TrEMBL record:
<dbReference type="InterPro" id="IPR023365">
    <property type="entry name" value="Sortase_dom-sf"/>
</dbReference>
<protein>
    <submittedName>
        <fullName>Class D sortase</fullName>
    </submittedName>
</protein>
<keyword id="KW-0812">Transmembrane</keyword>
<feature type="transmembrane region" description="Helical">
    <location>
        <begin position="6"/>
        <end position="24"/>
    </location>
</feature>
<feature type="active site" description="Acyl-thioester intermediate">
    <location>
        <position position="175"/>
    </location>
</feature>
<feature type="active site" description="Proton donor/acceptor">
    <location>
        <position position="118"/>
    </location>
</feature>
<keyword id="KW-0472">Membrane</keyword>
<dbReference type="Pfam" id="PF04203">
    <property type="entry name" value="Sortase"/>
</dbReference>
<keyword id="KW-1133">Transmembrane helix</keyword>
<keyword id="KW-0378">Hydrolase</keyword>
<dbReference type="InterPro" id="IPR005754">
    <property type="entry name" value="Sortase"/>
</dbReference>
<dbReference type="InterPro" id="IPR053525">
    <property type="entry name" value="Sortase_D"/>
</dbReference>
<dbReference type="InterPro" id="IPR041999">
    <property type="entry name" value="Sortase_D_1"/>
</dbReference>
<dbReference type="GO" id="GO:0016787">
    <property type="term" value="F:hydrolase activity"/>
</dbReference>
<feature type="region of interest" description="Disordered">
    <location>
        <begin position="34"/>
        <end position="58"/>
    </location>
</feature>
Amino acid sequence: MKIVGAIFITIGLVLIGFFGYEYISQSKDQDQSLAEAQERLDKSHKAPSQQTQTEDTETIQSFTADHMEAFGTLEIPKLEETIAIVEGADEDALSKGVGHMTETAYPGKEEQIVLSGHRDTVFRNFGDLEIGDIFIVHMPYGDYEYEIRQTQIVPEDDTSVVGEMGEEALVVSTCYPFDFIGSAPDRFVAFAYPVEK
């Protein structure tokens, strides 16, 4: 009986050590991505802009990012959070920050932008968000503010929320339920639209 107890204790300690290592490693990766994104934003914002409106439009339309590149930040004022946006929505990208779904647009391109993140890392307090709350996306070519106007819960394999909308919209998703242990069966999706200035 003592041997069985010792085995369970050992297994428990190994699992705690593994998850602790994963958490620390992921936090370090996210901090590094945020620093990289902030450095890129600082460089682009320091350069005085002498561009015409046509040149600005061309800059926005021609913008791209490489897979795993931290190119901007997502600021969530209500949660007092600023998170790196990383190109790609695969597990590697999501371990470093908020993932940008490559098939979708970037801010300013007047089409759907899709960002995803894990509920237990970058979107830990996502359940506190409500209709009317704000997302601010900081890009190398400008800042974009969006207001949440609708939320939806869909099954994890439902891709109907992704696609051309004919207007600029920021779609932010994470796993749901927020307190679910393990691989969650659904996705919580927030639809946010540009704030008129």
